[in-house]
Amino acid sequence: MFQILFTKYSLAMVDFFGGLVFFLMGFVIILQFLQYYQKSNLKLVSSVWLLSLFGLLHGTAKWFNFFLSFVFNDLPGDTFYFLKMTAVIFTALSFICLYLFGVELLVSTFKKYYYLRITAVVVTLLWLSIFLLSYPKELNVWLDEGLAWSYFLLAFPGAILVSLALITQITDFSKLQIPKLSKAIYGATASFMLYGLSTGMLLPNWNNFFSAIPNGTAVFPESTPALQFFRGLCGIGMAYFILLIMEIFNLENNKKLELAKTSQAVLEERDRISRDLHDGVIQSLYGIGLSMEIAINKINPNPCANQLEYVMNGLNETIASIRNYIQGLNPVEKHTYTLREAISALIRELSSHSNLIINVDWHDQDQHQLTSDQVDHIYHIVRESLYNVAKHSQATEANMTFETRKNQLVFYLVDNGIGIKNKSKISSSQRGLRNIYERVEQLGGTITVGSKEGAGTSIKISVP
């Protein structure tokens, strides 16, 4: 008698606390996802909402089972079976979400596995077909069988698939160099694997499979309390480690805030250096230049005047170089200029002190899709590219094109200059080109440089 009461009450408690754990897991995940999903680059984050649905639905289903077995066991038959069927459907839907989470995580990691999405449809239809075809059984047996089939056909492969998908994310998490997160991904992998194995341990009786439907007998043996307890423990482990992983949102957000503060400090320091150079060094050089002009006027005609004029020209070139350097220190006014306005101002500036003809075409370039950081990086990439053309290519004309295609901004620059002699070192031999490559990498884009000696140079840059 004591063993019967213990089994009844303990299993009811497993359903109650298991439902609480799964529901809280799903609730916390969806809150974190809605707040931070646009700010994270991890593949796991893009599909984690499916895991939150799994937690919410599975937790609700377990609460249904708790109330039906422990609280509302005296309900009228129709109401009882309706609520029990709802619990079975919620359980099956939760396992479908679990399966889809594993599929989407693998597809986002390995694009070639997109066909796995078809398997989700196949296993869902298989479960639904078996569930509906076995309807002639007694209602209680039919619903218990439907629940058992959902564990075997949906939860078992779904949990195994999720554990395999989580293994593929270990490399991404190790790059973050946060030991706690690395341990959490291992713990989550193990929990899902054990949960999947526990759901697959209750095998159907294949010998009586076809005869069981018309005879109304059970296909699955009754699940032991020990197995249900083990599943509950695995569920707690799954929830615990997944909630630890969800800290990645806060960690990424804090990291970006620190980077933003660092970037702001760098910009302020650049502004300070720019002001000091303009107000100090350039003004001093101007003063020296004025003194030299006075000296030249006084000693004319004199052989020394020619030498002084040569020095004066060198001084003017130095002032111009410092002005260009100051222009490079000053960032684009991110909240004032669009990319097109910034590029147009750059072309006017470059055309004013060079003979280079610059043509630019804009093809369906939606500037509102660019963040201020992207505008800043693209502006400096274009600026460095154009100055390289003006200084080194001996080109008379450069053609630029901006266009969007499949959420990518593509920038082309083609000149009619002398080309690059040593093409094998174009990414590392010059500081300016290194800057371009580094900025493209920071934007998550790609760059292709083509050049033929005597036939000009072409640059193609694609950024998200």
- Estimate percent helicity: over 70%
SSE order in H/E notation?
HHHHHHHHHHHHEHEEHEE
The CATH topology name of the largest domain reads: Rhopdopsin 7-helix transmembrane proteins
Coarse shape? elongated
Give the tally of β-strands. Answer: 5
Secondary-structure arrangement, i.e. CATH architecture of the largest domain: Up-down Bundle
In short:
By secondary structure, the chain is an alpha+beta fold. It folds into three domains: 2-245, Rhopdopsin 7-helix transmembrane proteins (Up-down Bundle), CATH 1.20.1070; 254-331; 332-464, Histidine kinase-like ATPase, C-terminal domain (Heat Shock Protein 90, 2-Layer Sandwich), CATH 3.30.565.10. Helix content is 71%, strand content 8%.
Verbal overview:
The protein is α+β, with helices and mostly antiparallel strands and 464 residues long. The protein folds into three domains: 2-245, Rhopdopsin 7-helix transmembrane proteins; 254-331; 332-464, Histidine kinase-like ATPase, C-terminal domain (Heat Shock Protein 90, 2-Layer Sandwich). Helix content is 71%, strand content 8%. The protein is built from 14 helices and five strands. The chain has helices at residues 2-36, 43-71, 77-109, 116-133, 139-167, 170-175, 179-200, 209-215, 225-245, 247-299, 303-329, 339-352, 372-393, 431-442, and strands spanning 357-363, 397-405, 408-415, 446-451, 457-463. It has a five-stranded mixed sheet, covered by helices on one side. A hairpin with a 2-residue loop joins strand 2 (397-405) and strand 3 (408-415). Helix 2 runs antiparallel to helix 3 (77-109), helix 7 runs antiparallel to helix 9 and helix 12 packs parallel to helix 13 (372-393). The longest helix is centred in the middle third of the chain and has 53 residues, at 247-299. It starts with a helix and ends with a strand.
